[in-house]
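User: Here's a chain of 412 residues. Predict its fold as tokens.
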Amino acid sequence: MSDHIVLEVGLAVALIAAAGLLSAKLRFSVVPFYILIGMAVGPHAPKLGIFDFRFIESAPLIEFMGRLGVLFLLFYLGLEFSVGRLIKSGRSIAFGGTIYILINFTLGVLLGIMFDLPWMEVLVVAGITTISSSAIVAKVLVDLKRTANPETEMILGIIMFEDVFLAVYISILSGLVLSGATSVAGVAMSAVIALGFMLGFLVIGRKALPLLNRLLNIRSNELFLLVVFGALMIVAGFSETIHVAEAIGALLFGLVLAETAHMKRIEHMILPFRDFFGALFFFSFGLTIDPFGLGGAIWLSLAAVVITLIGNFTAGMVAGRSAKLSPQASANIGLTIVSRGEFSIIMANIGKAGDLLPLLQPFAALYVLILAILGPLLTKESKTVFKVLNKFLPLGTAKTAKKLQKSTGEGP
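Assistant: Prediction complete.
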């Protein structure tokens, strides 16, 4: 390990802080600024004296701290919610998640066909355009204080539903792209294990609440944090071994602890870790994007962004209305989960490992970048977007919008 690794990490944190200060001054979501500052440096950047803006030596450490950031973001989101609220909406979440996947996956396939891509590349493109970014969605929901909103149940449910789809689809795609075949039994087993783990964890977690309350009755803050963090890492790490994203494992653990008597204490102590490591995740994500390699994928990326916006909004409206949410709350669903991120890059990497068209990597990077910027903006301005679209499309009445404002405490 380099002697200057502490200096490199310090430089990264300073750049992240500068990006955060700029976003606060402009009153814009901080996520795109963190990603853009990461893109501005990295392997293509210069080294100025002792300051190495390439972050070559420290990249693995920054990436690891970024992974911790995703865990803390999703864990905190789970704490803000609860298993009880999620279970109550089980049927509508299953319907909403199915609709969301069907619409976005179908549009992704059609996009690949429209651009005359080989069928293997079509499947990779469809995967890239279907799965939203858990980290960005969690960050935006928390930053905008929307965790108590009525549509958040559906948003969380769709994120978890996507993960079951992801476990199955990665199994299929890896088999087709990397080995030329895939086992139907193996794919079915992946789906059953992923779904079984999620449901089992939530059920057992609820049953174990009295035990958890006793175990967490620890006076020392130091020991309390060690117990909670240790359990969080073990649950998230175990999830990854059975092909459930580690971030979803963290979310599940948060959902369970949200119903304990220690929820407020955990929430208070986790905040600094969520913010610090979460910022490092978005920065490390930006480091992986080479701005000079994006040119050849502009038209495919722009077309993908357009169909994703249309598909997400449509899916959000259908899912929300099926759950008897107001038109504006339904619109919030589609606009909140429009961001794409870490999972889209994973899909592109599968294509790279299978020696598919080199176009897939710059396409995924540019597509993710655009939606990582647009997503938080559209979520923040969802009320304005709804009002504008409502003038041209029969989305809902002013009466239902006012009901939503009363139920969520939002202003006019």
